[in-house]
């Protein structure tokens, strides 16, 4: 059986992260579905700030991430919202991928755990990923994660778990759809967050 690869990226660098906890649910969901290899991108916190004049030498963390993304069928990103926007470390990481293009026409699901459920982070991530040419197929916010998790940060709220599992199920479906159907979903997301759906091709 052909194994599909899903890469997860956590935009939080904290060791006990609600966003990582969301990704953990995604990983176990794909393990349950079967036929998937889920790989976590690491080293986000070690990626230097992008300086376009210094792109000749690619940091190992960026090179590894590009290779991982290039060999992935889909990507799931979960990130907190910081100060009403996309978390800086994640944005920097995404900026390093603009030139190499590994997100182009790749299905991406976006999640955000945090105080507000990260609606602005979700819409900014969706916009940025669309600029990369990705197909953003899902947005999910989880508000007030502490109240939905146990003392170890594991999500225990049944409704949240079910919503996160639905994201994995959607990606599983998307990976067997025609490209035109995926474009249709991505355009609906674009309209939802208020950017031009015609950018998505
Ligand atoms: C610098 C900073 C800025 C934050 N800004 C926001 C914000 O704009 N909106 C929000 O909902 N939560 C905000 N928060 C709270 C985060 O949503 C919360 O800490 C979240 O759980 C972090 O995710 P993590 O557990 O995966 O690290 C902020 C937290 C920090 C540290």
Give a verbal description of the structure.
By secondary structure, the protein is of the alpha/beta class. The protein has a single domain (4-199), classed as Rossmann fold. The protein contains six helices and seven strands, in the order βαβαβββαβαβαα. It has helices at 18-33, 60-70, 88-98, 119-131, 158-174, 179-193; strands spanning 4-10, 36-40, 74-78, 81-82, 85-86, 107-114, 135-143. Strands 2-1-3-6-7 form a five-stranded parallel β-sheet, sandwiched between helices. Strands 4-5 form a two-stranded antiparallel ribbon. The radius of gyration is 16 Å and the shape is globular. Flavin mononucleotide binds at residues 12, 14, 17-19, 80-84, 113-116, 118, 145.
Using brief descriptors, characterize the structure shown.
201 residues, alpha/beta, 6 helices, globular, binds flavin mononucleotide
Q: How would you summarize what this structure contains?
A:
The protein is an alpha/beta fold and 201 residues long. The chain has six helices and seven strands, in the order βαβαβββαβαβαα.
């Amino acid at each position: 059986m052909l194994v599909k690869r899903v890469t997860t990226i956590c935009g939080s660098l904290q060791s006990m992260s609600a966003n990582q906890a969301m990704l953990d649910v995604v990983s176990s969901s794909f393990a349950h579905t079967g036929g998937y290899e889920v790989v976590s991108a690491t080293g986000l916190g070690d990626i230097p700030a992008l300086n376009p004049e210094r792109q000749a030498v690619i940091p190992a963390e960026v090179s590894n991430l590009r290779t991982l993304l290039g060999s992935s069928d889909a990507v799931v990103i979960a990130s907190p919202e910081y100060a009403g926007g996309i978390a800086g470390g994640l944005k920097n990481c995404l900026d390093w991928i603009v030139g190499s293009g590994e997100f182009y026409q790749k299905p991406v699901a976006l999640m955000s755990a945090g105080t507000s459920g990260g609606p602005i982070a979700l819409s900014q991530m969706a916009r940025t990923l669309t600029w990369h040419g990705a197909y953003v197929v899902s947005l999910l916010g989880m508000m007030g994660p502490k109240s939905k998790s146990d003392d170890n940060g594991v999500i225990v709220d049944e409704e949240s778990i079910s919503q996160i599992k639905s994201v994995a199920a959607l990606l599983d479906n998307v990976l067997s759809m025609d490209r035109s159907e995926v474009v249709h979903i991505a355009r609906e997301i674009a309209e939802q967050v208020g950017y031009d759906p015609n950018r998505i091709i």
